[in-house]
Specification:
nine-stranded mixed beta sheet, 39 helices, eight-stranded mixed beta sheet, Calcium-transporting ATPase, cytoplasmic domain N, single chain, Calcium-transporting ATPase, transmembrane domain, 1069 residues, alpha/beta
Length: 1069
Amino acid sequence: MSGPFKNSPRGEDKDVEAGTSTFTDYEYEDSPFDITTTKNAPVERLRRWRQAALVLNASRRFRYTLDLKREEDKKQMLRKMRAHAQAIRAAHLFKAAASRVNGITSSPPTPGGGDFGIGQEQIVSISRDQNIGSLQELGGVKGLSCLLKTNLDKGIHGDDDDISKRKSAFGSNTYPQKKGRSFWRFVWEASQDLTLIILIVAAAASLALGIKTEGIEKGWYDGISIAFAVLLVIVVTATSDYRQSLQFQNLNEEKRNIHIEVTRGGRRVEISIYDIVVPADGVLVAGHSLAVDESSMTGESKIVHKNSTKNPFLMSGCKVADGHGTMLVTGVGVNTEWGLLMASVSEDNGGETPLQVRLNGVATFIGIVGLTVAGVVLFVLVVRYFTGHTKDANGAPQFVGGKTKFDHVLDDLVKIITVAVTIVVVAVPEGLPLAVTLTLAYSMRKMMADKALVRRLSACETMGSATTICSDKTGTLTLNEMTVVECYAGFQKMDPPDSSSKLPPAFTCKLVEGIAHNTTGSVFLSESGEIQVSGSPTERAILNWAIKLGMNFDALRSESSAIHFFPFNSEQKRGGVAVKSYSNKVLIQFQPDSSVHVHWKGAAEIVLGSCTHYMDENESLVGMSGEKMGELKNDINDMAARSLRCVAIAFRTLEADKIPTDKEQLSRWVLPDDDLVLLAIVGIKDPCRPGVKNSVLLCQQAGVKVRMVTGDNIQTAKAIALECGILASDSDASEPNLIEGKVFRSYSEEERDRISEEISVMGRSSPNDKLLLVQSLKRRGHVVAVTGDGTNDAPALHEADIGLSMGIQGTEVAKEKSDIIILDDNFESVVKVVRWGRSVYANIQKFIQFQLTVNVAALVINVVAAISSGDVPLTAVQLLWVNLIMDTLGALALATEPPTDHLMDRDPVGRKEPLITNIMWRNLLVQAMYQVTVLLVLNFRGISILHLKSNPNPERVKNTVIFNAFVICQIFNEFNARKPDEINIFQGVLRNHLFVGIICVTVVLQVVIVEFLGTFASTIKLDWEMWLVSIGIGSISWPLAVIGKCIPVPETPVSQYFIINRWRRNSSG
């Protein structure tokens, strides 16, 4: 579009803390760190920001970013494996063709040894090479199942002994994974920091020179002190990184642990993929309209149609695109092509996140400033030293030309360089980008407890910017506990709906036959003898209703067989089946033995539209008049208005000679869907989830619009939307607020963009309608989250900024394309994800404010002191300790703050809003100016102010007080950073045990450093008065923060002024 939309999020005011964003994309075009989304980002774009970043330790900084080289290696490996598989298949086809021409027959396969009639190598070879000839020689799928001792109807026995034998014979469904890095690997990576290496060299030089000039008794202090401080930094950093790595490993295990349905002992049970004992490659036993996307293995994007005779082989790692079927599993773990690939290529951590990239930009800018400052300090100290302005402890010049020994000069220069390098350590916030992964790892672990499994790191933070959520209805906003509560059969309302006595036997027989065959569900007896029903919630509701009508599921399916299916899909809103009977038990007067019954079931108004007759209570076929059709439509609308899902069940007869006999033609045959006879219309109740209305209201208060996109009837959608609070009242239920999918898709792109902002409910929508809505909203500037559960939802999940798949009802294709899996299919869990997403951003901002305060104060104090007096009050060891507090411990304390309700009182965070808001600038400048002022006054006038003239070591006491007060200021300021825009900084502090623990550890270590490690840290023991002075200076941070928060700040971010000026200069140029 040519410019911002009137109602788009880009033009709206934001929360004061978050800042505002009123500029379009061009202002940031020239920044390599401006990546609004890393989802499907070009490789060159990702490579560009890496090259632009100022990095001291690449192995640590880029640990949790996408390994571009490894990604390319993975693609090459996949291409090689695809080419290898294609070559093998081509060779087998050529060999088979030559054998047919020459009349050569291959010898039957040698039976395997052990407990089974076929060995692992033989079965893997047949499956991997897709050798249809060898499969046929074994007797096809039936013969193979006999060799594997598997019942095609009931599956394997599934007892412990049987599973143990199968694991022994065929292996387990796992593949070798790359071992996690050891703790020592993290120690090694932490020690690769360039500044720490320089400090180690400086420590070695200082140790050698110190021993030479002062003797071994005193000369080792400085060198060992620096080395010990560096070692402490390395160990603490490595420990933090190692713990973080373990968290990611655990989360990856959860992501890989997929649960599927299998048949064991005649019952359908849900198990982990790791518990499959004849794993994921296999051959098709039976299926209908089964279409598979094999692009992940073959590289070909076309959909492959499978059948049990000509193309029965199914490969692991591929996705079912349509239809359904049963597979006999033949290959396990590394014995599958996907297992070989996964064993060859280790999984990455999901790539970098936009916030991570932006923080690298912030770290680079701060690092450049720090390097400049360190350079200035180094230059000033060297010049002052060689001009005789640097004094020793006795007040005499440290350097006198021609008199000072070379060893002393070298030792002094090493100390000066050490201070300059240490300033770089403090100035370059190497841990800043890593704080994102720390808070993401923490958030992901906590989100698991909130029933959300994060598959893509970036989605965690992007969810905090979401401005709209396009949600499914069934199972997400509702309980997914469906029951048939109303029924119209024989043009009469049945009350109760499962009263079989009100229907004639032949009518019931026809109805239950259609229900038993036209379903993907199943009915079986549990171990305790109770009837259990599996399948989707809608299927379960209808099957349970049919059981109450007297349906014998197994008997019906044994007395007749389905010869062709039209699987239910989201586009057509219906599914059908053609059934051929073996017995006269289910035949009625309208069906001679030579006929086939075609049953249809689906959305009531769609199926009803194809009906020309209905069966009345006397088992007679009656023509469907316009008046009768109108009555039924009114009944459907009445049920829909009461939030019932309406499903119609109909049938027709077809002469057997009209059905193709050739299997190839039958597979392409289209089930007739005209001239149907209506049997029943049922109303299925699926109650709203108890807390969903409050969750929707919470989203609305947080500036996130919830839109319902459902395949249900528009009236059902309206009723549920009113119940959930998505629609406030009946007056809102009009176009375009309430719209049907077919109406929306009929508009032009410009019209869709115009009305998409106003849409709250879309009924009778197809997956493509959902995709069109997502695209329109994104063009309007929205950050869009979408929920989906079906295979056809994959394009919308992929297109959305955040794709949320359903863990219970979601297909594997939907989960694969999603960024987050909602494990309980509950909308409340989606709202919790929004809270956590906002928490990630807020925690990073807290950490930035805290770190920049330390940066500014430490740099200014050392620079001013160096330029004015030629000495720095904070030594190398002290600065390393400050860096540890600021970097690792600070990140642990602030990046793991749990989310608060306050986060949902503000608008979503804009993608391009500044990381450092005006409120943050105000807070950090107030604290930094206070710390700089007080500590510089102490540096220049501390001896007199603290009455230290009579003290034997006034300079050391003064410098120790400065160091102690500086550290205590940071401890107090850490509390301020918890609540950048709130007065009560202590709210919820005791619930964050990690924060309290880190504060306590910091205090204890500070006391130890000052009181017991004076030789190493260049400190001296302080009396209680000096401790009170230090604590008093630090404690002023709290009331000062309250006063600072009363200072108003402009709504336009500071950074925008620079952008405006730069844009004006570029425009004028």
